Structure formats: C-alpha cells, structure tokens
Amino acid sequence: MIIETLSWGKLELKDEQMYHFAKGIPGFEEETDFALLIMETAPFWYLQSIKDMELSFVLVDPFLFYPSYEFELPDEEAEELGISADVVIRCIITLKEQVEHSTINLLAPIVFNPNEHTGKQIVLHRSPYHTKHKLINEQSTIDGKDGG
Q: Is the pTM of this model over 0.70?
C-alpha cells in the first residue's frame, strides 16, 4: 500500500507496519488505521494515519528515558487488543525547538500487539505519571519537583 504523508511524501507500506486502533486515538477517534514507522538512525518511531496525511505522532520507547517506568495493563485492555504474549509500549512525545523543553506523555502510553497488528492508547488511572514529563532528568519529573 502506498500512502501520502506530510513529512515524508509518498511511502510504500508493508503489511507488518499497519496497525488498527478499533476506537482510534483519544481526540482522533475517526482515525483507526495507522502505519508504525521506525526510524533506523534515531530512537523515534512515527505513528502515521493512513487516511490523513497531516496526522502523525512522534513516539519513543519510554524505557529509554525512564528505565523505572511501569504500569499494569488491565486485563480488559489486554483482551481487547488480543495480547497473550508480545507487547510493544511506546509513548507520544512533543518535540520542542529547544530539546530540553521536549516532553513525553507517560500517563497515556500506546500499547501495540505486534502479532495481531492492533493498538490502543491507554489512559492510566491512579498513576504517578502525567502527560508532560521532561525527556531529561527522570527523578525530578516522577516525584513532581519539576512542577509540570
């Protein structure tokens, strides 16, 4: 399949790059099909809408920046995604011109089932995380000292 993107122009996708989000992503519920693009030279991944060339999210493996990051995936979420073994966790980041101001959303990770090619953004309840952790300085962001 070939799609048109704002950032990369035309891309030819392989089946293993395509993921279905049954309920979309919060705020973008109408968009249910995405391509997961891995950047070989950087720790970033991109989640690109297949239908809307202007809709994409920059993702990162949260464990690279926050090794102690953890949460329990509720059974109903795992069941909805068809997860029995393999799971991939990524978080949306907001890149700023000054990289030290970039943030990562640890409150709502995106959970992928690479076997079924399904995904869902999970909002964690009763969690110490929030939507704008700094990419740098783990301890101050988790214990709330950064103020935001």
A: yes
